[in-house]
Amino acid sequence: MKTAIVTDSNSGITQSQAKELGIYVVPMPVLIDGEQYFEDISLTQEQFYEKLKSDAQVSTSQPSAYDVGELWTKLLKDYDKIIHIPMSSGLSETCHTLSHLAETQFEGKVYVIDNQRISITMRHSVDDALNMIRDGKTAEEIRDFLMQTKMQSSIYIMVDTLKYLKKGGRLTPAVAAIGTLLKIKPVLQIQGEKLDQFKKVRKLADAKAVMIDAIRSDLDTRFKDLRAAGKMVLAVAHTQNFEEARIFADEIKSAFPDIELNYIDPLSLSVSCHIGPGALAVATSVKY
C-alpha cells in the first residue's frame, strides 16, 4: 500500500524541498491589491514583504477545492491513500472545506488531518508522516497518530510592530498608537486553534526570555513525560528576520541542550500578513 503525503505552503516547505522529500505542497493563494498570487510559485517571500511594507492590501485565501481535488485524483493513480495535512481549522476554513471534499468524493482514500498545526509544527507533522511511512505504517495509523498528538505542541511569537495587528482589526487604533509609543512588543501564542496574546514586553531580550520561559514551562509540565522519553523537538521561525532567528536558535539550544532543534524557518505567509516583518517565534512539538 502506497501513501502520498500532501500539505500546503503554510508548512514552510518549499516546492523544491517537497520534490526532495517526495511529498506534494499546495501553494497558498495570496491576494495583493485584488490580484491573486501563489506562494513560492508566482510570489516569493521577498516580494510578499515588499508589498506588505508598501501598505498594499494583502491577505491570504483558501486554495481552490477543485484544484486540490484534481491533485488528489492524479495522485490516486499512483498511490492507494493520501494523507493531507492543512493548516489548523482554528486559523482557516481550508481544513473544513477539504475535509468535506474528502468525505464526499474521496471516502476511504484521502484523510484530511485537522491536527491543529501551522508553520514549523505543521512541518513536524509532515516529518512524522514520512517517518511512519518509512516504518511501514498504514495511512490509517498515520492519521490516528497525528490526531492523537494534535494538542502536543506550542508556538510563542514575538511581534516587532503593532501596525499589522491594527491593520487586521485585532487592535483598535488607539491601543495600537499607545503600544507603538511605548514600544511594546507583544508575545503571542498558538496552542492549537487560535492566535492569542500571551504577554507584553518592551525589549527584544525580554521577549526572547519570555518565550524561552514559556517553552520551559510547557516542557516541565504538559510535556514532561514526553520530554523524558526524548519525544519532543524544537524549532525557530521568523518573519524576514533570519539573523536574529539564528541567534535565537543558539540561545534555545543552550537553554534546552537535551532537545533537538530541527528548523529555522520563515513563518507562513498566512500568519505573516497579520503580524508583519521582524517577528521571532519558538515552537515545541511531539515527534513520532
From TrEMBL:
<dbReference type="GO" id="GO:0008289">
    <property type="term" value="F:lipid binding"/>
</dbReference>
<protein>
    <submittedName>
        <fullName>DegV family protein</fullName>
    </submittedName>
</protein>
<dbReference type="Pfam" id="PF02645">
    <property type="entry name" value="DegV"/>
</dbReference>
<dbReference type="InterPro" id="IPR050270">
    <property type="entry name" value="DegV_domain_contain"/>
</dbReference>
<dbReference type="InterPro" id="IPR003797">
    <property type="entry name" value="DegV"/>
</dbReference>
<dbReference type="InterPro" id="IPR043168">
    <property type="entry name" value="DegV_C"/>
</dbReference>
<keyword id="KW-0446">Lipid-binding</keyword>
